[in-house]
Amino acid sequence: MKEKIETLMHRALTFALHNPHSDFYRRKYGAEFEALLSQSVAAVPFLTRPEIEAVPLRSRVFVPQTMVRFIRSTSGSTGKNVIGFPMLEEGLYQEYLKSIGHVPVSGQLSRYFEPYFSSMNIKSQLLFSAGSFVHEVRVRGMEGRMFISGDFTQPKLTARLAAEAQVDAVVGSPSGLVSFAPFLKALDGCRAVRLVVAVGELATTLQFTKLQEFFPNAKIASQYGLTESQGFVGYTCPEKMSSDPKAFHVAEGSLFIELISPETGESLPLTAGTEGELVITTHEPQAFPLIRYRTGDFARIRSETCSCEGSPLLFECMGRLTLDRIRVPRGVLTIAAVDQAVAGLSIEIKEFAASWDAAGEVPGLSITLYMDEGDGELDEAIAKTLSEGIKIAPALSYADIVAEGSVRPIVIECRPVEAWIGWSKKKRLL
Ligand SMILES: [Zn+2]
To answer: What is the pTM of this model?
Structure first.
């Protein structure tokens, strides 16, 4: 496996360093850039987001500019500046790759839902955030499939169109889909759906459960990607849809992953249970290749491997390093751990929101639970259960560090589900 990665890195570097259209990587590595071609993967410097941001888009296009079909930008949802990325024209891209002698060509990055759509014979899809999938719509349209472009701010209209078309797949952000599903259900459009793909933000266990309830005949999957990757990075194992949608295969036809320590940058072995910052390298040429790009996302290697057609290795995303992971005394508080604990509650919760309050004398966690009937008396019991259920280290719970006095007890607020800031309400606030 190690040799394989060295070979893939060599291929990625060759495309990036000997590129006639952009000198981005030659400038980044400096005069000695050629030397990197003969060194180990670990010797290649990381690429970070500020380095990309510092260079104008026109100087970051590694293919003839006529092949760029549209520009996709980061969402700005993490509060950072928005960066544009060139997206390719599918047919021309394949031809171009052949012309520069890059064989084999997977085209995987540019075909988002390939692991599911073909094998499930999906004919008609409801696709939210269609702006980011212009390319996908065009390619699939050529294959005779129908797309409905959904709008979360127009749930009634969208549901009517989708029900009329008997859509058999629905793709969108998990929070948006959970808010939208009741509208489609009201028109009896949910039962025809065979596939639900959650994309964009990381879906919580609660959201996966909700989606399965709304779409009883559907398999639930997730695809993980980031704008910088200009395509997807991981996807739910086709054999684990619904049962374990968080288990991701690597889109290894296009890229390879590494895990590193976010603090030291040290490489970590891709072995069972390893957790670290996800680093990706695209070995298949794309308009802007990524070489050892630090994603800022935290991931964990699953203990089990998979024998389906995907990569043997399975991984799971744990959230953004800066947003979803906080160092606390003797451990790390992650949104994934809060998610697990909330999903384990015996009462029915519709959604939850967690925040960390470091302003007070003693910092602590606040959790808002959205449920049908708020019951103030429940709060204390729930706080206790969650406190004991949230792990910050293998044998250490949040309750343990509360007892030590280093954090305050969890503050729970139960609110009616109508108070949830779903997609439509978010939009109206703008
Ligand atoms: Zn699999």
So the answer is: 0.86
